Amino acid sequence: xxxxxxxxxxxxxxxxxxxxxxxxxxxxxxxxxxxxxxxxxxxxxxxxxxxxxxxxxxxxxxxxxxxxxxxxxxxxxxxxxxxxxxxxxxxxxxxxxxxxxxxxxxxxxxxxxxxxxxxxxxxxxxxxxxxxxxxxxxxxxxxxxxxxxxxxxxxxxxxxxxxxxxxxxxxxxxxxxxxxxxxxxxxxxxxxxxxxxxxxxxxxxxxxxxxxxxxxxxxxxxxxxxxxxxxxxxxxxxxxxxxxxxxxxxxxxxxxxxxxxxxxxxxxxxxxxxxxxxxxxxxxxxxxxxxxxxxxxxxxxxxxxxxxxxxxxxxxxxxxxxxxxxxxxxxxxxxxxxxxxxxxxxxxxxxxxxxxxxxxxxxxxxxxxxxxxxxxxxxxxxxxxxxxxxxxxxxxxxxxxxxxxxxxxxxxxxxxxxxxxxxxxxxxxxxxxxxxxxxxxxxxxxxxxxxxxxxxxxxxxxxxxxxxxxxxxxxxxxxxxxxxxxxxxxxxxxxxxxxxxxxxxxxxxxxxxxxxxxxxxxxxxxxxxxxxxxxxxxxxxxxxxxxxxxxxxxxxxxxxxxxxxxxxxxxxxxxxxxxxxxxxxxxxxxxxxxxxxx
Length: 598
Known about the structure:
Blueprint: E1 4-6, E2 12-15, E3 18-19, H1 25-35, E4 41-43, H2 44-52, H3 60-75, E5 82-85, E6 88-91, H4 99-108, H5 112-116, H6 131-157, H7 161-174, H8 179-191, H9 195-213, H10 219-229, E7 250-252, H11 264-275, E8 281-285, H12 292-301, E9 310-315, H13 326-333, H14 342-353, E10 359-363, H15 368-371, E11 382-387, E12 398-401, H16 407-418, H17 420-425, H18 427-436, H19 441-453, H20 459-465, H21 469-475, E13 477-478, E14 481-482, H22 483-492, H23 496-505, E15 512-514, H24 515-522, H25 526-538, E16 543-546, E17 555-557, H26 560-572, H27 580-583, H28 589-595
Parallel strand pairs: 7-9, 8-11, 8-12, 9-10, 10-11
Antiparallel strand pairs: 1-2, 2-3, 4-6, 5-6, 13-14, 15-17, 16-17
């Protein structure tokens, strides 16, 4: 029998049921970080930060290689157990070898008691001061709570309230503000005739919520409490009935656009994923102006019956484009809450979600860390995230890519906005106009605003005005909405190598290009160019219009509007020096290959 690994409690490695000496503290931190992200990549940079915070030694990478080499000898399997990949390490394990994977396997199979039996205390006790480990441990413990609550409710439904009482007290002491857990505790106590203790549990929770968060218990739990006071709660011999849902669901959605056009397939796919696909998280991505938010809002308006406890919308950016603090986001979602810190905000939001079936739209996310505190840790709520980036770090998400309109959809929207007769009278010019706008909903709407004002200008004349990159971006503006400003913001947020590459790609004579052409204009080798292009793909600045079998024949494309802006950047830039040093250093595949010797 091979080694077995444990993180559900203290860190441990057992060989033939005997503990293995895991070496120094830093070596143990490396192992703990790899185990709590088993079968996923943990980057060099993440490990450096976990070990030395902001003050790593010059030998940090070499030290990590030494730690990994020692761990390979301790746990066996060599590079097959801990492999190096893309600038980091992956610890390979199966559910039979690692308790956290076994827990998840048992939970998904419905063997809840067996899953809970794998827990021996707080996850990675003694390593929680390391942020990389703390974040993963927190997610595991939230999953434990959800499974424990599912198990407890199943036991209560079978008349096993007494068994639940044996275990729920200790869990509730560690998580005193979790409403679903407290509801379970109260129900179990009522089932065995200990109604006064159930009332005391509620009173304790009410005082704790008021003292620590300035909140009251949810209407559902308060209603359950009132039913107990009136002695209309569940009889001691039968399982408790769940409290009634709130009668007025929360609805904080923007207006569903009356001129919404096309997109029937993607709206149906998104709705089906959330209602019949078992998905609790959907990530809607696509280029600037593709209509991601409009699609999410339209779907939310149509799913009221599936999410009876509310549908809410929150933007993660202020009017100036700056990120909004979590406290501000939660206070807008829950106007009665006044969280003073991110941890209080997260707790208040999770308390509201617990026991509810709500749909949340998180709009314009730029990075995974902005989204994670808003994801439901338990219950039946769901979240739609809209983002230009694919947010690959969000696990178990249903992903929907929104591309530009088809020609007939773009022309149809233009007709709805400026009049079908005007479009029908000169359809070829209408097609030129929407093509110049990138076949994007936002571009077509901005053009339509201009054409509505310039109702005396023939479409043929206006199409000629849109020829040329600078004229094009000048036309795509209405009020305080301008494509140029949106593109400047999106490109300005790119990592430095990708940002510096955009004007270089604007020097290309055509928006469709090969890897070799990109490498030439970037002044970089092909391996470096690939990394830069993939960064731009992730940010939806470029696309791959057609999938090819051979990597070297792939064609990349800068869509119409980013290409126009890239050409503007190229025109106003002073001659750039060779950008390869900025593109590479520790970030290039070649650099990683030369330093990785472990």
